[in-house]
Amino acid sequence: MPSHISRDDVAHVAKLARLSLDDSELDTFTAQLAAILDHAEDVEALDLADVPPTSHPYPLVNVLRPDVAGSTLAPDAALAGAPQAEEGRFRVPTILGEAP
Amino acid sequence: MTAPTAIELAAAIRSGERTAADVVDAYLAIIDEQEPAVHAFNVVTADRARAAATEVDRAIAAGEPVGPLAGVPIAVKDNLCTDGVPTTCSSKILEGWIPPYDATVVSRLAAAGAVTVGKTNLDEFAMGSSTENSAFGPTHNPVDLSRVPGGSSGGSAAAVAAGFAPLSLGSDTGGSIRQPAAFCGVVGVKPTYGLVSRYGLIAFASSLDQVGPFATTVADAALLLEVIAGHDPADATSIPQPAPSISEHLDDGVAGLRVGLISELMGAGIDPDVAARVREAADALAAAGAIVEEVSVPAVTYGLSAYYLIAPAEASSNLARFDGVRYGLRVDAPTTNEMMVATRTAGFGPEVKRRIMLGTYALSAGYYDAFYGQAQKVRTLIARDFATAYERFDVLLSPTTPTTAFALGAIEDPLTMYLNDTCTIPTNLAGDCAASVPFGSDAQGLPVGVQVLAPALGEVPMFRAAAAIEAAAPPRSDGSTGKDAS
Fold first, then answer.
1. DSSP label at B373?
2. Would you call B312 helix, strand, or coil by DSSP?
3. pLDDT for B2
4. How far is CA B247 from CA B7, B99, B162, B219, B318, in A?
5. Which residues of chain B have pLDDT under 50?
6. Least buried of A76, B167, B187, B453, by fewest C-beta within 10 Å?
7. Complex ipTM value
8. Nearest CA of chain B to the CA of A7: how many Å?
9. What's the N-to-C CA distance of chain A in angstroms?
10. Coil, strand, or helix at residue B350?
């Protein structure tokens, strides 16, 4: 039985991730994600209170480059792959309920 | 007839014995004939390849200096940006997108004179171990067309195994170069994290991703790594030092080299034929003068669980950029939020959705400490256990994969598929380097890969051991075709 993640959890996570799932997808993904999280119980069960986390292989801090102007992507090139562009900008549908 | 190596081709072209144009035509002819059965490529860039080859021939005729790969054909994984050539990550969400710039590794290939013949198929966004997650259909293993080539860089491994190019580039986040190399019987290298620029590599899990070479020989892989490695100011995680000299050490031998066989990766879950080949490779190293012992690296057994929390967490963040605004697919809807939901729902395949949701869950309030935080601590344990082992050993040895190549469609359960990465994942979590070298076959004639692991920036001892294993490798038993692989 799924011990970690419920159908409602999956629906919530899908909403956060901007994905829409139908009922059968919700069932399938819930069972699959539960199995994967069950497998992770070995890690969940370890006592690691004194172990620091590693977020990255190397402890890099503040990688800087010389403050010199370089070449960047031209606006036309940056916009060339956009589904919709207008007046040098990316065009999107209505946001915040405003009229287009 | 054995296909020439990249080094042999480059020498023949530089000396005028062959022209780059003839060479690329010969490879394009093999592609024409066999690509329909293999499906290694998302796109074959024949015209561009011929133009690049012609330019190499012109430069050589004019007596101009040319790079170390001048005229050598290469296939490039389709998650590396190529200026003017579609780059899809084998996803519907990027279908038809043409990048406005080259990845650093692609620029370095061009500067070295290499001739890119096409972009290779992969599991969508490099998420998978079989290339069956491609939105454009699976790649078939050239050794046995009924089997998977491995993944996610299955197209790149298959391209080299099929003789479509002597070299290819892949990317490796949890084994995506080494596992397909093992399945297809070619050499594959995951370099030290930060040795090769990630600029222009479409990100899956940024703290784990690394670009690396496929080749038919260890020496060819070393040459290609030398071409693509070295500091890149465009990648903040790039190690600020020049590319290492590896090729000059390939003949150094392994006398006195300390080799540890990882106990935890030689027992349960490992196919007996695979384990037997790895022990034979260890014996061969010992016979060549290496000091071989078993070593315990206990935390590697937690690698899979930690990886499948960390990599999806990073992916859920990285793939948020695919929202129908700046590139790729847009599914129209009345509001921007609805457009983003419709676009992502239509554009991503099931495995990508699964990992995005898994990562979103692992990072969400209430679960962060139990999952993502705990996995990051396990990452520390794995790095520590490797560091302890590397106090006593120069390199470590294990199988690359628990089994040889499985049949297309044979594994449907995601967790079962993830188990393919058991031996390769720990290296990515530690940021170290590792290579897969072909070493004989199983009872069915399918290739076996031996994995050589080394600490961060331990490429030289890793390649020395790899070269010795290659020199001692038995020929693959004649299970099936593989006629173009060498």
1. I
2. helix
3. 75
4. 11, 33, 25, 7, 35
5. 1, 480-486
6. A76
7. 0.93
8. 12
9. 48
10. helix
